[in-house]
Design a protein that fits this description.
Order of helices and strands of chain B: HEEHEHHEHEHEHHEEHH
CATH topology of the largest domain in chain A: Pyruvate-ferredoxin Oxidoreductase, domain 3
Shape of chain B: globular
Order of helices and strands of chain A: HEEEEHEHHHHEHEEHEH
Distance between the termini of chain A: 47 Å
Strand order of the largest sheet of chain A: 3-4-5
Structural class of chain A: alpha/beta
Radius of gyration of chain A: 23 Å
CATH architecture of the largest domain in chain A: 3-Layer(aba) Sandwich
CATH superfamily of the largest domain in chain A: Pyruvate-ferredoxin oxidoreductase, PFOR, domain III
Largest sheet of chain A: 3 strands, parallel
Distance between the termini of chain B: 36 Å
Number of helices of chain A: 9
Largest sheet of chain B: 8 strands, mixed
CATH architecture of chain B: 3-Layer(aba) Sandwich
Oligomer: heterodimer
Helix content of chain B: 25-40%
Number of strands of chain A: 9
Chain lengths: 312, 303
């Protein structure tokens, strides 16, 4: 949706445009991405001959910052020092620049306030489109709102109004950086330089990568990153029935250790099935970002008074 | 695991199926599969037709502890025949010790079981193939965006039936189609009734010949509800009588749960976005009554 709005806004601003979504599996938790290509001079009949994914993006908008930690999502693929990266996050630009070791420009689109109910999660598409439109510097706010009217009209007035508001707010929030995105030189396929591969001697798979043949090696995939809500067991209330949450958890992410159930947060996807089915209601729900803030706090307090958090 | 499962407390508390799968959060099919795998044990080889669960084993990752084979959508039982034959030859030649023999388990969605794979399945039952078939039935082609399948219930919205009356067809009675082949065993199960499921899988595990299992799999993505409601919706499917829990053995069909005082089916329907058009903007009394009548009629025949 964000790419369609941005594409239409560029089209209304006199560009030749190509925008396309790319889905993997159509399921919750699967990363999705979309691309927009724009060329000046639509009136002169300029066409875009490239197709498919963009190898050298001028702007990358990351709608969910947990994707940055998933290599398979490839959010930063092909960026160079001129690429502007915009991340929807609660963390600061410095934090992300440091984590990702980026030399180029990195901006933060502040993530909205957390919600208790997933159904109230904000629709991020228009926000991303609005912020991107501002950063490109070639789209007037009117073109943006027209694009939203055109693309979302069939969803009804309420949806259009909400998305117009979100897009405009994001546009305003980025106003200090208006036009920061520069046009990268197009790289023709014949000039493509392959990355500097390092040749490594290859051992037999059983030696080089024993994990590949290990049983149940899917545990190396950290699906815990999907979570927006975190289930937490209150052991004072836990009835130690030892099978209910563990059996119903679709992801085998609750095991019984000793006589108590333990949630594997590296893999719990936050479906919250366990919260509803626990007979004595011993499992509560807190927003994931709050849980992480509290964890961070505990670690920092530990560093301050010199104790190891694992000891407490 | 060899002790007989009688009570909830007998259900396993550690699980064989690995975490970290790409299935949707709150997947009712995965919930059933992990319970089934715990009962079947490690000595299983899965033969998987194309579908959501194909993505369980995307190289180099797998949640299984043993082998897994991927087949085309219509031919998983044929793949199972090949695996079973190979195992039998190895056993016969003494190249595989009997204790290392594997249970051959077909795993497919409803698209394959109710539709494309029907012919291969029928043939496998004709040949009395020694295998277990598990169909996770989420009532549509979930992996590609929930287009309708022959398992889609009457009136449901899918990506390819989005009018005001939803899917015009009726859910195929696969239990009866399979039972008509007179295989060793046919059963319906659901992850939200783990004891009933475990008893049936245990029974199937200890038999030979074709053993056919249909697991209704509440699907947050395809049925349009919050993942936390997966178990609730599964329980309602049983309580309202929409999903009868039953088994077929030696020519006889037995209902393992006969719901008394069935609540109206709409309690099940209104929890799911795929039936929202039956309630809003105004109630479609005619269609609601038709769905209820069909369920009532089913249970009148049973008792």
């Amino acid at each position: 949706m964000a790419s369609r709005v941005l594409g239409t806004a560029l089209f209304r601003s006199g560009f030749t445009v190509q925008d396309a979504p790319k889905y993997g599996a159509e399921r919750r938790g699967a990363p999705i991405f979309s691309t927009v290509r724009a060329a000046r001079g639509a009136s002169e009949g300029e066409t875009i001959n490239e197709r498919g994914i963009i190898h050298r993006p001028d702007l990358v908008v990351v709608a969910d910052d947990t994707l940055l930690a998933i290599p398979a999502a490839g959010t930063l693929q092909g960026i160079d020092p001129d690429t502007v990266v915009l991340v929807n996050s609660r963390e600061s630009a410095d934090t992300w620049r440091h984590r990702l070791n980026l030399q180029g420009e990195l901006l933060i689109l502040p993530a909205g306030s957390e919600v208790e109910d997933r159904a109230d999660l904000p629709h991020i598409g228009a926000t991303c489109a609005g912020a991107a439109a501002c950063l490109l510097g070639v789209i007037e706010p009117e073109a943006l709102t027209t694009a939203i009217d055109e693309e979302l009209g069939p969803l009804g007035e309420e949806a259009v109004a909400e998305n117009r508001e979100n897009a405009s707010a994001a546009f305003e929030a980025m106003i200090a950086h208006r036009g920061i995105v520069t046009e990268g030189a197009a790289v023709p396929a014949k000039d493509y330089e392959p990355p500097a591969w390092v040749e490594l001697p290859v051992d037999d798979a059983s030696i080089a990568a024993p994990d590949i043949r290990a049983a149940a090696n899917s545990v190396q995939v950290r699906t815990g990153l999907w979570r927006t809500l975190r289930p937490v067991i209150d052991y004072d209330l836990c009835g130690k029935c030892w099978w209910v949450c563990s059996t119903f958890c679709p992801d085998s992410a609750i095991a019984v250790e000793g006589d108590k159930p333990v949630i594997d947060y590296d893999h719990c996807k936050g479906c919250m099935v366990c919260v509803g089915i626990c007979p004595p209601h011993a499992i509560g729900s807190i927003p994931e970002y709050l849980a992480q803030q509290r964890e961070q706090q505990t670690i920092e307090e530990g560093e301050a008074d010199g104790t190891d958090p694992a000891d407490r | 695991m060899s002790e007989t499962i009688r009570r909830m407390k007998d259900l396993p508390s550690t699980h064989l199926l690995g975490t970290g799968t790409p299935m949707c959060s709150g997947c009712g099919g995965l919930e059933a599969l992990h319970q089934i795998y715990d009962v079947l044990g490690e000595n299983t080889v899965f033969v998987n037709a194309a579908g959501c669960m194909t993505l369980l084993s995307v190289y180099p990752f797998t949640p299984f502890r043993g082998s897994w084979l991927y087949t085309a959508m219509g031919s998983a039982p044929a793949g199972a025949q090949g695996v079973r034959d190979a195992l039998d030859i190895l056993l016969q030649q003494g190249r595989l010790p009997p204790e290392d023999d594997l249970q051959v388990v077909v795993l497919t969605g409803d698209g394959s079981a109710y539709g494309m794979g029907m012919s291969a399945t029928s043939g496998a039952m004709d040949r009395d193939l020694d295998f277990i078939y598990i169909c996770y039935d989420n009532e549509g082609y979930g992996n590609t965006g929930q287009q309708y399948s022959s398992a889609t219930p009457h009136g449901a919205t899918t990506a390819t039936s989005c009018g005001s009356r939803g899917y015009p067809g009726y859910k195929k009675d696969l239990f009866s189609v399979w039972s008509a082949h007179r295989p060793s065993y046919v059963a319906t199960v659901i992850g939200s009734e783990p004891l009933d499921l475990a008893k049936k899988i245990e029974k199937a595990r200890d038999m030979t010949g074709p053993r056919m299992i249909i697991a209704l799999s509440p699907c947050p993505t395809g049925w349009d509800y919050d993942p936390k409601d997966s178990v609730d919706i599964g329980k309602l499917a049983v309580k309202t009588g929409v999903w009868p829990l039953k088994e077929y053995e030696n020519g006889v069909v037995t209902h393992t749960r006969v719901p008394r005082d069935r609540p109206p089916v709409e309690e099940y329907l209104q929890r799911q976005g795929r039936f929202a058009h039956l309630f809003r903007p105004e109630r479609n009394e005619e269609l609601l009554a038709e769905i209820q009548d069909r369920v009532d009629h089913y249970w009148e025949e049973v008792v």
